[in-house]
Amino acid sequence: MSPVPPPGYYQTLIADDPFWLTLIKVVVIFAGLMVMTLFMIWFERRVVGRMQQRPGPNWNGPFGLLQSLADGLKLAFKEDIRPVLADKAVFFIAPVLSVVPAFVAWSVIPLGPEVSIFGERTALQLTDLPVGVLVVLACSSIGVYGIVLAGWASGSPYPLLGSLRSAAQVISYELALGLSIIAVVLYSGSLSTADIVSAQEGGWYVWLLPVSFLIFAVSMVGETNRAPFDLPEAESELVGGFHTEYSSLKFALFFLAEYVNMVTLSAVATTLFLGGWRAPWPLSLWAGANEGWFPLIWFLGKTMVFLFVYVWLRGTLPRQRYDQFMRLGWKLLIPVSLVWLMLVATLRVLRAELTTGQILIVGGVALVLLVGAALLLPDQPAPEEDPEPPVAADYPVPPLDLTVPPTPKRRRRAVTTSPDKDGETVGAGASREGDS
């Protein structure tokens, strides 16, 4: 088992990188994310096709691997249309604001331990900041501004509706996502992503903080506007959502931002809960599994598991209603996150102040008090049965006792006929009751 470096070690190591090495890292991360986007589009279509018993792309290249490249070239040569009522400057800046933060977030994600690149000792990470987790949260928050501005600058009601949905969505799920990370910070004692990976040398946080992991997993799907939480786009109801008026390369930037955000949050989940680049058991028993370039393989493998779950959800779950979606965020994820955070913080304090036996005694007393309170509470009387069938409270329905008055009968007016010049009869027609 490789020794754990002290906190701040990778910050000092990366700070000594020469300029050319930093430039190589930037180019490799940018190119890797571009290739990963092309791969994810192909991967999603193939997996969903297999789930729906159809082949998916299989024509361009072996197994259809060049289909994503063909789609990208097709988008590049499409006509770029801008609505007459659109704000020209904001209409152009919005897709850039969506895609740039998705790339910037990768600057603080550790891909591996210390390695040698052209004779220079460095870490497989662009930079390590003392507040790396906050950088990731800030990038995910800034990206929504591009969506909101795109809907507003289009000068059309449908994109505006999609952008407003996106603003409400990100506010709801950004809170739950941030609260789920606090427990990880409490146990690791650092906001540095590299130090969080080092702190999981004895065990992954997915086993220690399962509730935080589940909340983070649900919130990251809502954060990236993916099914079943793709309300900002919602093609069947919003005609494409915030990017309805976009075409050509501007639309391609939104498409790129969505898939890069998927990869980014999958990498963040791997870093925070699955040990980052550390090898899974039983490979971790081999000392060389966490040294050199092998950890890059483990990191990419864990990230691909999350990406497969993204595709799996899209191919199986239907889109939620807006009220269901908001209720899940505000009434379930956020309260559960707050209660779980209080339990984690209390346990941390008890472990620091008390021994294991004292903690068990305190926990047993608290459990006895809860059980006793539940038994001593008086039974609530059963509510009277409502003779009327229950009415859904969250979806507008007409009252069930509504009676529609009968339609008044029409009285036919006597039809008078008169011969015309050719000897044929012509009717004067009928009129409703009350006609004069």
TrEMBL record:
It is a multi-pass membrane protein. The chain crosses the membrane at residues 20-43, 89-109, 129-152, 173-192, 204-222, 251-273, 293-312, 332-350, 356-377. It is an enzyme of class 7 (translocase). It is found in: Cell membrane; Membrane. Its EC number is 7.1.1.-. Residues 381-436 are annotated as: Disordered. It comes from the Bacteria. Pfam families: NADHdh. It catalyses: a quinone + NADH + 5 H(+)(in) = a quinol + NAD(+) + 4 H(+)(out). InterPro entries: NADH_UbQ_OxRdtase_su1/FPO, NADH_UbQ_OxRdtase_su1_CS. Residues 391-404 have a biased composition (Low complexity). Keywords: Cell membrane, Membrane, NAD, Quinone, Translocase, Transmembrane, Transmembrane helix, Ubiquinone. NCBIfam families: PRK06076.1-2, PRK06076.1-4. Belongs to the complex I subunit 1 family. NDH-1 shuttles electrons from NADH, via FMN and iron-sulfur (Fe-S) centers, to quinones in the respiratory chain. The immediate electron acceptor for the enzyme in this species is believed to be ubiquinone. Couples the redox reaction to proton translocation (for every two electrons transferred, four hydrogen ions are translocated across the cytoplasmic membrane), and thus conserves the redox energy in a proton gradient. This subunit may bind ubiquinone. PANTHER family: NADH DEHYDROGENASE SUBUNIT 1 (PTHR11432), NADH-UBIQUINONE OXIDOREDUCTASE CHAIN 1 (PTHR11432:SF3). NDH-1 is composed of 14 different subunits. Subunits NuoA, H, J, K, L, M, N constitute the membrane sector of the complex. This is NADH-quinone oxidoreductase subunit H. The gene is nuoH.
